[in-house]
Amino acid sequence: MIQNTIRPRGRPRGFDELEALGKATQVFWSKGYDGVTIDDLVAGMGVGRPSLYAVFGDKRAIFLRALRAYAEKKGASTAEALLSSQGLRDSIAGFLRYIVESATEEGSAAGCLLVCVAPLVDDAEVRRFLKNATAGAAALVERRFRDGISAGEIPADFPVGARASQVVDLSNGLTMRARMGTSRKVLLRDAEEAADLVLLPRGTNHGPSGGARKARAVRG
Amino acid sequence: MIQNTIRPRGRPRGFDELEALGKATQVFWSKGYDGVTIDDLVAGMGVGRPSLYAVFGDKRAIFLRALRAYAEKKGASTAEALLSSQGLRDSIAGFLRYIVESATEEGSAAGCLLVCVAPLVDDAEVRRFLKNATAGAAALVERRFRDGISAGEIPADFPVGARASQVVDLSNGLTMRARMGTSRKVLLRDAEEAADLVLLPRGTNHGPSGGARKARAVRG
DNA sequence: TCAATTTCGAACTGTTTGGTACGGTAATAG
DNA sequence: CTATTACCGTACCAAACAGTTCGAAATTGA
Q1: Predicted model pTM
Q2: Residues of A in contact with B189 (CB under 8 A)
Q3: pLDDT tens across A11-38, in order?
């Protein structure tokens, strides 16, 4: 281990800041935001109460830092899951599989901090952050769809925007079911089926009794 | 107003039990479970603190009653939205539209008690109730799909089970986005697109570069 | 009018919680 | 070896909280 940073003057810390933040994430993840007390964080993070206030600030500040760090890490992982595969279906399925796997990881609480916990936090900054994060996820998927069009894997009129947000909706639905205790096995199967669904070619209408469909705008 | 029940002996109550329960639902809905205090309920329900304990019990009991009443009412409404239309597409779209509309109702908090609040409550009975409720919703949609097969609106090999749980996943995704502040207009458009998606005929695979798809079991 | 019964409002009690002050401890600098 | 710096653990305080007690108020029955 390289020690390229000179030690600060006084007594060294008894904890690693980022590691403690990771533990805070777990605490919030399992108990929700309002459900955790400072003592929960003290116990879970392995940081004494005064140090906690001195280094991180109050509960809200800790949550915001934990949320940002978690989103950054998870965003990178999902992007990798999405972009590492060659084929489009494997990309989408890999994305959804990763979502399911991380939502059913043993040792962590079920679900996802971003999907199951953060939306309930009554805080403007959290909401703003969340909206950006989900928009980013949808944009990522949409870009992958566009690449799929370029590669000829899907037709040029594939509704990339709509399907991208449907992928996100479906992944959120899978995550919520994970939180509610649905097994990884079932969710992995459903992830595959979801990937199949969102890759279906645009319907030219089927069946004899097509019924009256309301005309409406189509988005790009 | 008919007075067919004889008045009980003592001082009459200053509140209606079911109305108060409805207000409790709103309180939990907007603040989450852990976020509400007894004083919040006292203020929101218009019931004095001792009466609240005497009539309803503690916070957990109030939440369980509110949850059951809410689920019953919402279950009936969604079933009606699903079954009132003749055509299958209108049924599914009506279902999703109703979900979006009730999740973006003005005057209530955004989202849904069942989707956004209840899953975070760390209580075995709540979890059990939720699992049953979502299974019931999926079963309802699945039955509608079966009727669609009987009516010849969709092919006989339509994957009713998978598509039903996808409808539920998508509706949960829409609800979560409502909670995060997405506008009703956008969500209504996405509800229509979701209805289109889940009614697409099963893919016989498309495009020239079909890629390597893992073989896997197919459910009924 | 008076007793019995039920609810309501205010106040009370023990506990939990958020946040801080204080002395002890472990490291570096000279 | 001493001074300085920064962190750690304990203990403390005020505010918030859950749950209860108690007397007043409202209604029925006699």
Answers
A1: 0.90
A2: 216-217, 219
A3: 999 999 999 999 999 999 999 999 999 9
Separation between the CA of A9 and the C1’ of C29 (whole angstroms)? 8
| Paired tokens of B150 | 């009987």
Query: A139: Cβ–Cβ under 8 A, 6 or more apart, which residues?
Result: A164
- Residues 180-199 on A with a CB inside 8 Å of B are 180-181, 189-190, 192-194, 196-199
Q: How far apart are CA B208 and CA B153, in angstroms?
A: 29
Reported as half-sphere exposure (CB side, CA atoms, 13 A), residue B22 has a value of: 9
Report if CB B152 to strand C is under 7 Å.
no
Query: Using one digit for the tens of pLDDT, what is the confidence trace for A80-120?
Result: 999 999 999 999 999 999 999 999 999 999 999 999 999 99
- CB < 7 Å to strand C — which of 10-39 in chain B? 10-15
Please write the tens of the pLDDT for every residue from A171-205: 999 999 999 999 999 999 999 999 999 999 997 65
A11: left (phi over 0), alpha (psi -120 to 50) or beta: beta
